[in-house]
Amino acid sequence: xxxFATDYKINWYRCPIDRALLAELMQRNxxxxxxxxxxxxxxxxxxGALAYLAFLNIDASNWPWSVPLLLVxxxxxxxxxxxxxLIAIHELQHRTVFKSxxxxxxxxxxxxxxxxxxxxxxxxxxxxxxxxxxxxxxxxEVPLPIRFSLRRWRVWLGLLAWDPxxxxxxxxxxxxxxxxxxxxxxxxxxLPESDTALRRRHRNWARTLLLGHGLxxxxxxxxxxxxxxxxxxxxTQYCGxxxxxxxxxxxxxLNSDIPDFRMNTRTFTCSWLPAFYYWNMQYHLExxxxxxxxxxxxxxxxxxxxxxxxxxxxxxxxxxxxxxELRRRAIADPAYRYLPPLPGxxxxx
Length: 349
Description:
By secondary structure, this protein is mainly alpha-helical. It has 17 helices and two strands.
């Protein structure tokens, strides 16, 4: 039986903000949505094309430089790959990228197909995550404390290159879902067996992934373009280093069961390129506090409420330095608890 309760009614603290300004910040802008979406997709396909051209130019006369060029091209292509999954799908599911719900839904499915993502599960899971963020009895999407280790060689293989075991596990998971089998309390909680229509949609989406990618792979191979399997079919499943560096800070080292997003969600700032890859989700605290504000307006939202927020680290180096220090302290003292500095008192009940 699922181990999660459903009776969450959490009275969240939100920073005071002028209502007119908030209404302005919540406005969707189709031009900004189209630019982000087409540029993001375009970069993925452009880097894929460059990697394929590098592959086509390998021969016996130029292999000393053409092979390294191919590896660099694959690394660049793979770096954007992880951002094609739940990171892009996340904002589209909030329906804040475009004014049109149909456009948001279309690109949500397109990104989900490219990245083999389980967007139906994520829709259900992420709704609860926003309503009950890091409350252990309710939120199984981000259970705290988050633990990770960088000591295993396979971790580095997946971050800097490709770990075939990760792809195999992804395929097995999609295969299970295509056969209607769900594993884990959280999966069964957000996709309950009693909701047969939801389960059917979920199963059919997994079948769409298997059939669609399978047919494309067959076409690639049959037409002599087998390397497109590497570029497209598994192109979102390698070189996850930047996705990990951007995504892991969201809630790491922070607190559960406190009705104040400032205590369980982290914001950092960074340069324009990772911000573009990451759809501005480095402003994660602001996003949780006011999730109806589109990603392109989060910097303005930050400025409007910054006086009531913890200070934000700037850059991934400074952010990870802070996180690793929290990790060191937590290992040395399991009772250690980090409370971000705030201008006022924090509610704990």
